[in-house]
Design brief:
With 868 residues, the protein is an alpha/beta fold. It has four domains: 233 residues, ATP-grasp fold, A domain (Dna Ligase, domain 1), CATH 3.30.1490.20; 87 residues, ATP-grasp fold, B domain (D-amino Acid Aminotransferase, Chain A, domain 1), CATH 3.30.470; 135 residues, Phosphohistidine domain (Glucose Oxidase, domain 1, 3-Layer(bba) Sandwich); 271 residues, TIM Barrel. 46% of the residues lie in helices and 18% in strands. A hairpin with a 6-residue loop joins strand 6 and strand 7. The structure holds phosphoenolpyruvate (PEP) and magnesium ion. Its cofactor is Mg(2+).
Length: 868
């Protein structure tokens, strides 16, 4: 295998192999942009190293060859005493994992080459010693595993309140000595002086950082596969810390918060890259670079335009200016908020850069779902205490907490918290995940908190400099004498950047109002409207709703449902009516049973009338009752206690006997669905009659009758015959079909289709039975361990397991259609509203997906994306 690629050899399509950073550095190199020369070690080498615990054979030789070539082109050798080549060693996986893995800068410095570097920089001793101390600090922390605070504390002691730029060469030289002392104390060895040894160790440290706890946590959060590995980029150093004519910055080609075009970025004079992200000193807005260095500024703007036109998308970049010369260190298609994603997609269409088809593929159902979150009520009384930067939109309310541990602790108890920090660093990840929102007093829109929050779709206000945050004291103060202690409730608005004391009420988002029928007014809603229309035009899958009352049905229609795919009739018997079902199930004889059925029938009929009215001439799939008995019978423990304490009536005693008789160890695998219909005479017939009578009352109604939980065609035949007779007698036309939610039904679909005019996959039960996972229990008991072990990346109850459950779906679809070519096929498990599962349904040739009303826009969009 070839493990090393020069920047001139790669391109942006090689992200699997070169990681995102490496692939894009290569792309920029080939575009002729000023990228410092270098090369990339592949993710394949990383995977080998992580699996075998050793670098793959031949890697050292390949790296040496590329390093030689690099040295030749630069005219100096790595670590050369009188004129050293220095390199950075930077991680870069296929998917960006901001700040989660390691990077080491200034490799190649030692006690000799530091003088060479100073000489080459025109006698700039300060710069050389600053670079050297940075190397020992980063190398010590990331490669040698020394506690970073030891270095920070030594630096702070030396600064004694001054800025790091105030330190002079002599002081930095002394700092290097104390850093070397720290390394010796902590590891028992001297800091490695050999430049090639430094580089080799740094490469392995970057590989190892793939499995750092925070990286693992981030991947799980972002659903990034655990087995990809990271590439390593070795790049000749350029220096932003040479003095006032140097610096480093980050920028976006347009606003990642709103999508608006303009100049968005932060710049830090006389600094190296890490300083910007870490928020060590406050950055200045990128616009001010124009005043400092107009030539570099103009060049940067023109490069940004080149990149946008080339990638045809928002890009974010990292750059460094070394004594007036601009260098590009990174670019990628940038993360953005959900709102920006929709705006940018349509803007790029209007600029002629992409087509509407592409625009639809540029946004996701998850982003749309985020736009449907509620926002703060503009009319509510609120007490605003400060304003920061609107880093990641949304409305979050919760108790203020000041540490990640505390955030996780309270969240585990079910409390909503807002994580308040001066700035966040990658170690705060667990707290950021646990919190409803994140508030920081320092750092710009490119700070760690902002980048990570945007990626997670979590509300974030950052850089609220009016706040004085005391994390140790678990308190912050705001102007006007406001003090907020841990546990006090605050509300933060990630769209406006405002911070409020107390709980602010939330209202529906503008996007939800649009789906409810409001005219699109603001530009975000207009963008959503355009994209939804195009997705609807492109999709082949129908979208239906799971709804069992007229209100949900009506909302589903407003949200674009083309029918009801699952009306769960047992849901009509919860609440007051539960008693009637209980009476039915426990009925002692035919007479009691008939009485219970007679009581239920008119209620059922009026339920169906309401739903048919809401749905007009759209099809309505009504599933006959499927009550897992444990959800409907009285609690056995409560009854037993009553009997034992002598409080029970005769009726209670009879009830207890009946409940005991019907008690099941595995109710989900017990007397439910079609089984109940076959065991309780008259139950299904009553429901079918109610459906037929309701349909006669509502002109245009299109009922479809669905039999649940069959495993064999014979079950279906028994029910079908009776149902068909009732329909015929009433003169009502209705399809009769079945759910496919047991593995046996799926595997015998060819037979089942003889008796079914449609199939609907109940993937909740199908998943439960295919995996043998109790859908009520396992997510709470052992799924977190399974996720940790990587047995699956996401719960199979959330995203359809293509390999197992998906195969059952595919087999049943194919064999069902072989029997009955016009068999209509849908899915109505929770997966019907899950983006990845919608794509699966499209690929497998289903006719429609059915999901809860609020997921319908997501399903429409994803069905459109799947078709493009
Ligand atoms: C299913 O099993 O996927 C389904 C839709 O039915 P229920 O969730 O009601 O069991
Ligand atoms: Mg089911």
């Amino acid at each position: 295998a070839k493990y090393v690629y020069d920047f001139t050899e790669g391109n942006r399509n090689l992200k699997d192999l070169l990681g995102g950073k490496g692939a894009n550095l290569a792309e920029m190199t080939n575009l002729g942009l000023p990228v410092p020369p270098g090369f990339t070690i592949t993710t394949e080498a990383c995977r080998h190293y992580l699996a075998e615990g050793a670098l793959p054979e031949g890697l050292d030789r390949e790296v040496e060859e590329h390093l030689r070539a690099l040295e030749e082109s630069m005219g100096k050798r790595l670590g050369q005493a009188d004129d050293p080549l220095l390199v950075s060693v930077r991680s870069g996986a296929k998917f960006s994992m901001p700040g989660m893995m390691e990077t080491v800068l200034n490799i190649g410095l030692n006690d000799e080459s530091v003088h060479g570097l100073a000489k080459q920089a025109g006698g700039n001793d300060r710069f050389a010693w600053d670079s050297y101390r940075r190397l020992i600090q980063m190398f010590g922390k990331t490669v040698l595993g020394i506690d970073g605070d030891l270095f920070e504390d030594a630096l702070d002691a030396l600064k004694d309140g001054r800025q790091d730029t105030d330190l002079d060469a002599g002081e930095l030289q002394r700092l290097v000595e104390s850093y070397k002392g720290i390394v010796r104390d902590q590891t028992g060895d001297d800091f490695p002086a050999d430049a090639r040894e430094q580089m080799r160790m740094a490469v392995m440290a970057v590989f190892d950082s793939w499995n750092a706890p925070r990286a693992i946590l981030y991947r799980r959060q972002e659903r990034i596969p655990a087995d990809l590995g990271t590439a390593v980029n070795i790049c000749s150093m350029v220096f932003g810390n040479c003095g006032g004519d140097s610096g480093t910055g980050v920028a976006f080609t347009r606003d990642p918060g709103s999508g608006r075009q303009g100049i968005y970025g932060d710049y830090l004079q006389n600094a190296q890259g890490e300083d910007v992200v870490a928020g060590i000193r406050n950055t200045i807005p990128l616009q001010e670079l124009e005043r400092l260095d107009k030539r570099s500024y103009d060049e940067l703007l023109s490069i940004m335009e080149t990149l946008e036109n080339h990638y045809r998308d928002l890009c974010d970049i990292e750059f460094t200016i070394e004594r007036g010369k601009l260098w590009m260190l990174q670019t990628r298609v940038g993360k953005r908020t959900a709102g920006a994603a929709f705006r940018i997609a349509t803007q790029l269409v209007d600029q002629g850069l992409i087509t509407m088809d592409e625009a639809v593929t540029r946004v996701t159902g998850d982003q749309l779902a985020r736009l449907m979150f509620p926002r703060f009520d503009a009319g509510a009384d609120k007490r605003r205490i400060a304003k920061g930067m609107n880093a990641s939109p949304g409305a979050a309310v919760g108790k203020a907490v000041f540490s990640s541990e505390r955030a996780a602790e309270l969240a585990a108890r079910g409390e909503d918290v807002i994580l308040v920090r001066r700035e966040t660093n990658p170690d705060d990840l667990s707290g950021m995940i646990a919190a409803r929102g994140i508030l920081t007093s320092r750092g710009g829109k490119t700070s760690h908190a902002a980048v990570v929050a945007r990626g997670m779709g979590k509300t974030c206000v950052c850089g609220a400099e009016e706040l004085d945050v005391d994390t140790a004291g678990r308190t912050f103060s705001a102007p006007g004498g406001v003090v907020v202690n841990e546990g006090d409730v605050i509300s933060i608005d990630g769209t406006s950047g405002e911070i409020f004391l107390g709980e602010v009420p939330v209202v529906a988002s503008a996007v939800v109002e649009y789906f409810e029928g409001a005219e699109p007014e603001d530009d975000l809603v207009k963008a959503v409207d355009r994209i939804m229309r195009h997705a609807d035009g492109a999709r082949r899958l129908g979208v239906r709703a799971n709804a069992d009352n007229p209100e949900d049905a009506a909302r589903a229609v407003r949200f674009g449902a083309e029918g009801i795919g699952l009306c769960r009739t047992e849901h009509m018997f919860l609440g007051d009516r539960r008693q009637l079902v209980e009476d039915l199930v426990l009925a002692a004889g035919a007479e009691d049973r008939q009485a219970a059925l007679d009581a239920l029938e008119p209620l059922q009929k009026s339920d169906f009338v309401g739903i048919f009215q809401a749905m007009g001439d759209r099809p309505v799939t009504i599933r006959l009752i499927d009550p897992p008995l444990h959800e409907f019978l009285p609690d056995i423990v409560g009854l037993s206690v009553k009997v034992a304490t002598g409080e029970a009536t005769d009726k209670d005693r009879a009830l207890l006997a009946a409940v005991k008789r019907l008690h099941e160890q595995n109710p989900m695998l017990g007397l439910r669905g079609v089984r109940l219909g076959l065991v309780i005479p008259g139950l299904f017939a009553m429901q079918v009659r109610a459906i037929a009578q309701a349909a006669k009352e509502v002109p245009g109604a299109r009922p479809e009758i669905m039999i649940p939980l069959i495993a064999a065609v014979q079950e279906l035949e028994c029910v079908r015959e009776e149902a068909a007779a009732i329909l015929a007698e009433a003169g009502v036309d209705a399809l009769i079909g079945t759910m496919v939610e047991t593995p046996r039904a799926a595997l015998t679909a060819g037979q089942v289709a003889e008796a079914a005019e449609f199939f609907s996959f109940g993937t909740n039960d199908l998943t439960q039975m295919a995996w043998g996972f109790s859908r009520d229990d396992v997510e709470a008991s052992f799924f977190s361990r399974y996720l940790e072990l990587g047995i699956f990346g996401v719960s199979p109850f959330e995203t359809l397991d293509r390999e197992g459950v998906g195969r059952l779906v595919a087999i049943a679809t194919e064999e069902g259609r072989a029997t009955r070519p016009d068999l209509k096929i849908g899915i109505c498990g929770e997966h019907g509203g899950d983006p990845d599962s919608v794509h699966f349904c499209h690929d497998t040739g289903l006719d429609y997906v059915s999901c809860s009303p609020f997921r319908i826009p997501v399903a429409r969009l994803e069905a459109g994306r799947a078709a493009l």
